[in-house]
Amino acid sequence: MGIEGIYEALLEGRVLISSRDVNALLKLCFSLLEVGVSRGLRVYILDEKGIASRYIPIDIAEKAVFVMNYEEACRNGNKLLIVLLPRYVKRFIKCKQGKIILLTTYAGFELPGFTKYQLRRVPGTSEYVMKSLTTGVTYRLIFTNTGIVEVQSPPGLLGKAYDVIKEALVNYGEVSIRDGVVILSRELGVDRKTARGILIKLARGRYIRVAKGRIELA
């Protein structure tokens, strides 16, 4: 999709992104703020807990309007509203803003009208997987000092295998070589000998590495 497509998906509607990683939510907040401003949007940050206000760089803070309560945030509909760690998520169903991004550590509830994403770090790496719980679309991201970078998978069947291994690491935390072979065989519809060969190719291409019998992303 490309990073522009990711920004488009997040900035053009009502979105909820949940993660246990508050630091990642902060970085995402600041990146989306800058992109929104660069696209000519008025960006408001609802920061009820004061976390963004404490950590945001001054040059970025000057680009947004910070508000401290729900009523002020939802007044006037012509803006992008980014809400960091809201105290009560469900009340934003009634908020009149057309463009809302809710960044929260809570998950598991229904929020009609919002596209829901889950942001999870791939263990042992600086990479994050952001998956739409509404559409099933998955993005692979790294946060840098200059914003968000999309991680590209290898082409063809190797790319599919790489995505399968990455998803397994996110879901299970660690994956042994044996488990990796079984998972690839099942998900790709190939025999185990072929699955093992795919793992070898991923390792030779430096997409993965093996340490103490466990698969890690390179």
Give the secondary structure arrangement, pairings included.
Layout: H1 3-11, E1 14-18, H2 22-38, E2 43-46, H3 51-55, H4 58-61, E3 65-67, H5 70-73, E4 80-84, E5 99-104, E6 115-121, E7 127-132, E8 138-144, E9 147-150, H6 156-172, E10 175-176, H7 177-188, H8 192-204, E11 208-211, E12 214-217
Parallel strand pairs: 1-5, 1-6, 2-3, 2-4, 4-5
Antiparallel strand pairs: 6-7, 7-8, 8-9, 10-12, 11-12
Number of strands: 12
- Total number of helical segments? 8
What is the name of the CATH class of the largest domain? Alpha Beta
Strand content: 25-35%
Please give the CATH architecture of the largest domain.
3-Layer(aba) Sandwich
Our measurement of the CA-to-CA distance between the termini, rounded to an integer number of angstroms, reads 23 Å
Q: What is the name of the CATH superfamily of the largest domain?
A: P-loop containing nucleotide triphosphate hydrolases
Helix % is 25-40%
List keywords for this structure.
12 strands; 2 domains; alpha/beta; Rossmann fold; 3-stranded antiparallel beta sheet; Arc Repressor Mutant, subunit A; 218 residues
